[in-house]
Amino acid sequence: MIDSVHQIIAGVVLLTVIGVAYGGRFVFTTVAGRFPANDLQKSFFRAGHAHAGVLVILGLLTMLLVETSDVPEPFATLSLAVFVAAILMPTGFFVSVIGKDPARPNRAVALLWVGAGVLVLGLLSAGIGLIVAGSTP
Asked: In this structure, are residues 110 and 59 in contact, taking their beta carbons and an 8 Å threshold?
């Protein structure tokens, strides 16, 4: 059973899926040609949308595994970084190609790489924490 704080986090994260669904509608209208975008933008919009959906689900799964396995601190708290990555990485994809007909991503693409680092931190923490919890008698 997960505690009330993590139940609230899970509820809020599930509500963000509404935003991901709206993003899917946006990606569809862009790819269908109803919203002007160049090939770079279309590719980055697709990647941003895909990362948002996958990372939200991965974050929920990670949280559930960590919370139901009595993972010790600081691993349990650091594993929540997966949710932070679910914000940073898609933001990096979308914001880095804002503008009219960009030829390459702008500096906001750094959010993508920061998010990747945060994702690694969260997954390492969850993985190590689960191993520690499983090997502790």
From this structure: no
Distance CA 119, CA 5 (A): 21
Report pTM: 0.90
Alpha carbon distance 109, 90 (integer Å): 10
User: Is the separation of the CB atoms in 129 and 83 below 8 Å?
Assistant: no
Per-domain boundaries in the chain: 4-135
User: pLDDT tens-digit profile of 40-61?
Assistant: 999 999 999 999 999 999 999 9
What are the b/e assignments for 12-47, b being 16+ CB within 10 Å? ebeeeeeebeebeebbeebeeeeeebeeebbebbeb
| Dist CA 31 CA 83 (whole Å) | 27
